[in-house]
Amino acid sequence: MGSPWKKSSKDFPPGPRPLPVIGNLHIMDLKKPYQTMLEPLEEELQRFSTRTQAFACFWKPPHNGSEETLPDNVRVSKQYGPIFKIQLGLQKIVVLTGYETVKEALVDKADVFAERAPFPIFDEISKGFGIVFSHGENWRVMRRFMLTTLRDYGMGKRSMESRIAEECSFLVKKFESYKGKPFEFKGIITAAVGNIIVSILLGKRYDYEDPKFIKLLTLATENNRLLGSTPMQLYNIFPMLGYFFATRKKVLNNRKELYAFINENFIQCFNNLDENDARNFIDSYLIQQQQERKTQNNGYFNHKNLEESVTSLFVAGVDTIMSTLFWAFTLMMKYPLIQKKVQEEITNVVGYAQPRAEHRTKMPYTDAVVHEIQRYADVVPLNVPHATTVDVTFKGYFIPKGTHIIPLLTSVLHDESQWERPHEFYPEHFLNTEGKFVKRDAFMPFSAGRRVCPGETLAKTEIFMFFTSLLQRFTLQPAPGISTEDLDMTRAVGLTTPPKTYTLCALSHS
């Protein structure tokens, strides 16, 4: 049999023509690849003109720079429709854009698009273990265990809400300690969010100033930033050059330190393990491991799966929620009238009581604002790449088994056919004419299908409770001398994309 690539080349999705060796790398913004895939041709042409010198050995650009004489390989963006191909190095990637296309792939054909695409740096880190970058039966077993265990430890239950409420009280006291003076809230919010996932993993919490905890959070957030950086993008495209990238060494060293922390606590849990009293996620895993050993020699509940699952749960559980809350507070400073309207609803519905998830249905405007923050924030714009499990004909195109797939989440959350004002912060996206909350099918900040974020329910509860607890007690304003227009809304580079504004004043209502 011949290669499916050769047999399907004429039926493969269209895309810009690749250059030798580099593919379409010359037209990609590696700091914001998701933007390259969507932006208008004019912006792409402008950026292209600044890059041709670097690739002059592969292609000589035209002299006049007009659109008519530029080659097809700069015509990415909207020219090819909702499905198109890009090539990075020798790797062909199919990009899916827009709600209808992404939904059909991830939901309607969930099993077909359920595989995880291999990437050198992630494969080097996880080696196929854990949940995020694992495959086949290992992924299914680990995902099933994680979902069951998260539910056991309160995800979606009152017990978890109580843990979050307790952390909210610590966070409020910390904000109060600044007495309305400007402070950087990045580390404080990161620690508060980190304590929720730590309570599940280890059954404990850390003080915000604990040096070990600060180091742990720094390692996790730094790696998420580095993994989305240009050097790591280039390493994933040209892995043979990996030893020349200092960033790769930094990522691997950070990961080793994260593993060391987990192993230290793993030993403590193991030494105090009671099979009849699982106190946390690691306890549950160790008990499952012992039960598995009684029935089979080489099961899935090995040390490497534990190490990788705990690390992924911690890193993902901190970074996405943290980034969303950064956007929440920045947007409230940016739009004080919206902040005031949220505060009025909190006062009318909750009063001075601790906001809970149950209040959400009675607070349609606040619920709409929280949803719009998540849509607008778009903190994982590129999604985590998928791969096809079988050969498939999709939307008239033949896509071979194992093809890398990017279901572009930013294209769903800003789909002009689904949102009235896709590029603006507009809470009315989630309100009807009567002011009641309405669900929107194109709201997919946690992705969809088989690889949807397993902590989605926990994340929604955390975001809502942290957000309402702080706005109940404080009015958030920019630091003196900074106007709402001066707030830096630039997206940071990384696997997640928080804003760059991290300073605020929290004016107490008491």
Features:
510 residues; alpha+beta; 5-stranded mixed β-sheet; 3-stranded antiparallel β-sheet; 10 strands
Topology:
Layout: H1 4-8, H2 33-36, H3 41-49, E1 83-88, E2 91-96, H4 99-108, E3 115-116, H5 120-126, H6 136-152, H7 158-176, E4 183-184, H8 186-201, H9 211-227, H10 230-237, H11 246-271, H12 281-295, H13 303-334, H14 336-349, H15 364-377, E5 386-387, E6 392-394, E7 397-399, E8 404-407, H16 409-413, H17 456-473, E9 474-477, E10 503-508
Parallel strand pairs: 2-8
Antiparallel strand pairs: 1-2, 3-5, 4-10, 5-8, 6-7, 9-10
What does this protein structure show overall?
The protein has 510 residues and is an alpha+beta fold. It is 46% helix and 7% strand. The chain contains 17 helices and ten strands. Strands 1-2-8-5-3 form a five-stranded mixed sheet, covered by helices on one side. It has a three-stranded antiparallel sheet with strand order 4-10-9. The protein has a two-stranded antiparallel ribbon with strand order 6-7. Strand 1 (83-88) and strand 2 form a beta hairpin.
Query: Structural class of the secondary elements?
Result: alpha+beta
Query: Uncertain runs with pLDDT below 50, 5 residues or more?
Result: 40-77
Spatial strand sequence of the major β-sheet = 1-2-8-5-3
Q: Quaternary arrangement of the chains shown?
A: single chain
Count of strand segments? 10
Residue share in helices?
40-55%
Largest sheet: 5 strands, mixed
How many helices? 17
Tell me the span between the first and last alpha carbons: 75 Å
Estimated radius of gyration: 24 Å
Series of secondary-structure elements, N-terminal to C-terminal: HHHEEHEHHHEHHHHHHHHEEEEHHEE
Basic shape = globular
Mean pLDDT: 87
Strand content: 5-15%
